[in-house]
Specification:
The protein has 325 residues and is of the alpha+beta class. The protein is 42% helix and 19% strand. The strands form three sheets. A five-stranded antiparallel β-sheet has the order 1-3-8-5-6, with no helix packed on it. The longest helix has 32 residues, at 92-123. The termini are far apart.
Amino acid sequence: ILNKFLDNYQEDVLPWHESIEPCLSSLTAFINDREVVQLFIRFLYRLASLNKDYAVVMCRLGTKDALVKALDKHSTNLLLVTELRDLITDCEKYASLYKKMTTSVLAGCIQMVLGQIEEHRRSHQPINIPFFDVFLRNLCQGSSVELKEDKCWEKVEVSSNHHRANKLTDKNPKTYWESNGCTGSHYINIYMHKGVVIRQLAILVASEDSSYMPARILVLGGDEPTNINTELNTVNVTPSASRVVLLENMTRFWSIIQIRVKRCQQGGIDTRVHGFEVLGPKPTFWPVFKEQLCCRTYLFYSTKAHTWCQEVMEDKTQLLQLFNK
């Protein structure tokens, strides 16, 4: 469908840049299927050839790494891979410039906001810049991009068949981790990166797994491997489900999240899980902004206190202004 639309390409008519990340995700998920990988590479090459702006976006999204993996898997049996890689390599300098420009613009915006707040403190006059509150809110609430996948967690442990644990993270919906044990003893431990508060945690399952498909899941949180006992949620899985959300909008950080399969469909003993997805907090400039705001606040009040002390030394009657009488 995308290739058909691309046949009648007109600049700025469609948001083509939004198609790049889903294409890369699909390319990675179906990396073993040479025909599918070839289709995505051909589309991405056509897109990058039409407009270098899209090649810059591809560069920033890690397309070169995806191409290296595709080449490792299929050797020289793929067409247009080297051509696409060369196109992206040529645009790396533009991607770097774009990043520096974005950083400079945001730094300027933050400095402008801090300057207005400081002026407000001095003059006690309202800030009359149109949409200032909207700008400030958008600056601090974060972008529309979630922190996800391997940027959220460090490692994964499973209760059994440890050699198949990598099937949970290969992004291939056709593969799966299968447990080996008694009913209720199966679990997946996800060790989170420090400070990452989960926005959403989901697992991927398949109805065709029949009695291997999870039916009831208990989610636990803990700070040590020997102390994972805080119950966070219990979820009943319908037989037709494919993606099951286990946690949403957590308010605190847990070092370890345990997904425990308590029961399988049709009374099954062992279970199968095809993968998991973790969304972390949206990236935000609030930590940087807060740090700068605190520095300026400290400087402002330190200067004000020093000035006041000088005035008191010259005129001690000003001390009376501190009291009602």
